[in-house]
Amino acid sequence: MRTATINRSTSETSIAVSVNLDGTGAYTVSTGVGFFDHMLEQLSRHSLIDLDVKTVGDLHIDQHHTVEDTGLAIGEAIAKALGDKRGIRRYADALSPMDETLARVAIDISGRPYLVWKTEFSQKKLGEMDTEMFEHFFHSFAQTAGVTLHIETLYGQNNHHIAEAAFKGVARALREAVEIDPRKAGVIPSTKGVL
């Protein structure tokens, strides 16, 4: 089983994350930020990665540390569960429609963290979540997961749909990228021999 558990504690947050890359999309998520929980549930359900997240953060200040550190912990857990990445497909992309919105996501589990974010919101908040934190979450996730991640909203108007299309697109691309390729099950997918 490709599983991992990460416990991350600072003076700002206390986080426990468990993942199972070969799961069914089962989740238990609690961050104290309702809309963020909803997006992480989408990430789990549509990637088929089982996700258990318990974050206690300094929400009396703002959401920044809670969202950032949760992204760091989830990325770290996925990287740990991937191990040496032997046999994975590595690359994947997804088009993610959500009513009037269409998002495009591409991922490379490269060991080289990078985020390209081409998504804008016309509201400052969705529920109680600051919309500027979505980009920051994916940046933090990409850093510790060691992935190159491109997220672009091709078009859309409803801010909820824009956020959800991005998370579902990442989920669907991640699902494919972490899968074991039966044609190369024992091989690291790089000419360098290491990722």
TrEMBL record:
SUPFAM superfamilies: Ribosomal protein S5 domain 2-like. It is an enzyme of class 4 (lyase). It comes from the Bacteria. Pathway: Amino-acid biosynthesis; L-histidine biosynthesis; L-histidine from 5-phospho-alpha-D-ribose 1-diphosphate: step 6/9. It is found in: Cytoplasm. One of its GO terms (molecular function) is imidazoleglycerol-phosphate dehydratase activity. Its EC number is 4.2.1.19. InterPro entries: IGPD_sf, ImidazoleglycerolP_deHydtase, ImidazoleglycerP_deHydtase_CS, Ribosomal_Su5_D2-typ_SF. Keywords: Amino-acid biosynthesis, Cytoplasm, Histidine biosynthesis, Lyase. It catalyses: D-erythro-1-(imidazol-4-yl)glycerol 3-phosphate = 3-(imidazol-4-yl)-2-oxopropyl phosphate + H2O. Belongs to the imidazoleglycerol-phosphate dehydratase family. NCBIfam families: PRK00951.1-5, PRK00951.1-6, PRK00951.2-1, PRK00951.2-4, PRK00951.2-6. This is Imidazoleglycerol-phosphate dehydratase. It comes from Sphingomonas hylomeconis.
